[in-house]
Design a protein that fits this description.
By secondary structure, this protein is of the alpha+beta class. The protein has 19 helices and 23 strands. The strands form six sheets. It has a seven-stranded antiparallel β-sheet, with helices on one face.
Length: 459
């Protein structure tokens, strides 16, 4: 599914790693699927922090010369898709500060739901903000505290509500911590003489590292004096990993909380097929790329051939300009091409990961019909999205969500499919066992207070 769901960002860090900037560059490249709007790296050396960041893909932002100038063995990096805060340069991460307690830099994946309340409090106390992101609120909150960096981070973390996996770096220390609900993933691994930290394990595997440790909900891991030391900064912890991490955002080769993403998505496809025992079809195709694993699972369970019926143009990005309605209508054709030899004259099962507004699904169904499909049966490897997300996933308001406005039959007619079915919340949770998932976008049951964002939910 295209131009529907976006995740806010990915974080990566190095502690006591030779040529940390280059290592972070490769880590961010592995996490590029989590954000393509901006990229940045900060490196600590001799008590000072250097920051280099810009708009665009990691490969476009950094040159070899840029990386050579970022000297040091401690670093944090970030790839961004903006939800909380706009696309202004000031909101690009890492965000750094020079204070009387020393220089620090911060990167953040997720979204803080009490950011407006905290910003108002901090501004009343004299804080001056350069941008509009909730990440800058976190930085000011840390700076406001007293004590060692670890003590300040702990006090700040206890004030935050929402989703966050955060790295904070000082001249000799790197701290990684995760929200008490575990909404956003974060893990770390040994790398020769040092340690690396990442939003996803796929960044480790690029470097030949296949064992990692998850940062647990409500846990803080302090990298100092050559070793990681962990503790919990709050006794109030539960487990609500964002379901969309598995369904849509994480790479198939990533392992999140001991669960391989590809394996889990294949299982969602199998579960979909089990409710389709009476469906007569000829071929199963997946919408690239996030739905291919589920399509494979469906095909195996249904004993149907899996084929690449849609080909993705990988050179069309989210920044593709669509200034007219005619170009918008042509947008799906620019991104997807049907393989007529696979589709023509056949009854097609199309597996997709989700439906948000429904316009893209409708265009894809029409593409398949134009390519000669006799029937198009759409199966969605997630439950119906009925509520917006406030934890770092860029979804619409409730009135723009097709699942909140139409019945299943109405949705089927709107996208012009022959049949339409979704995975149930129960089946999704069963596929993710033993992990407990946040499914607020499917059920409307949020694991935190929404504070001022409650108004958006009600409107």
């Amino acid at each position: 599914m295209f131009d529907e769901l976006h995740e806010e960002c990915g974080v990566f860090g190095c502690y006591q790693c030779q040529d940390a900037a280059s290592l972070t560059y490769y880590g961010l490249h592995s996490l590029q699927h989590r954000g393509q709007e901006a990229s940045g790296i900060a490196v600590a050396s001799h008590g000072k922090i250097q920051v280099f960041k810009g708009k665009g893909l990691t490969v476009d932002v950094f040159s070899r010369e840029d990386l050579d100038q970022l000297e040091g063995d401690l670093s944090v990096g970030h790839v961004r898709y903006s939800t909380a805060g706009g696309q202004e340069y000031e909101n690009i991460q890492p965000i750094a500060a020079e204070g009387y307690q020393g220089d620090i830099a911060l990167v953040h994946n997720g979204q803080i739901v009490n950011d407006r309340e905290l910003r108002k409090e901090l501004e009343a106390a004299g804080a001056i903000f350069q941008g509009t992101s909730d990440s800058e609120v976190i930085l000011h909150l840390i700076e406001k505290q007293t004590g060692t960096l670890e003590e300040r981070v702990k006090k700040a973390a206890q004030r935050l509500e929402g989703a966050f996996s955060i790295l904070v770096m000082k001249d000799d220390t790197l701290i990684a911590f995760r929200d008490p609900h575990g909404l956003r993933p974060l893990s770390y691994a040994r790398n020769r003489q040092g340690w690396i930290i990442s939003s996803e394990s796929c960044a480790f595997e690029v470097m030949g590292i296949y064992r990692h440790t998850d940062v647990l909900p409500g846990q803080m891991v302090v990298f100092k004096d050559g070793l990681p030391r962990s503790s919990f900064y709050t006794p109030k912890r539960d487990h609500h990993l964002c379901a969309m991490e598995y369904i849509y955002f994480a790479r198939p080769d990533s392992v999140i909380e001991d669960k391989n993403v590809h394996a889990l998505c294949k299982e969602t496809g199998r579960l979909l097929a089990r409710q389709d025992k009476d469906l007569q079809a000829d071929v199963v195709i997946g919408c690239p790329d996030s739905s291919l694993s589920a399509a494979m699972g469906y095909a195996e369970e249904a004993d149907l051939p899996f084929q690449y019926g849609l080909v993705k143009n990988r050179f069309v990005t989210r920044t593709f300009i669509q200034p007219t309605q005619a170009m918008r209508d042509r947008g799906v054709r620019m991104k997807l091409s049907p393989v007529r030899e696979v589709i023509d004259g056949r009854r097609v099962v199309l597996i997709d990961d989700s439906i948000v507004r429904g316009t893209t699904s409708r265009r894809i169904v029409n593409l398949l019909r134009e390519a000669g499909a006799k029937e198009v049966h759409v199966r969605i490897a997630s439950p119906i999205i009925t509520s917006p997300c406030f934890y770092g996933v860029d979804t619409s308001t409730k009135k723009e969500l097709i699942g909140a406005q139409m019945t299943l039959e109405e949705m089927k007619d709107y996208i012009q499919a022959d049949t339409l079915y979704f995975l149930s919340p129960e089946d999704l949770q069963n596929a993710a066992e033993p992990s407990a998932l946040c499914m607020a976008c499917f059920t409307g049951e949020y694991c935190t207070d929404l504070f001022s964002h409650q108004e958006q939910l009600e409107n």
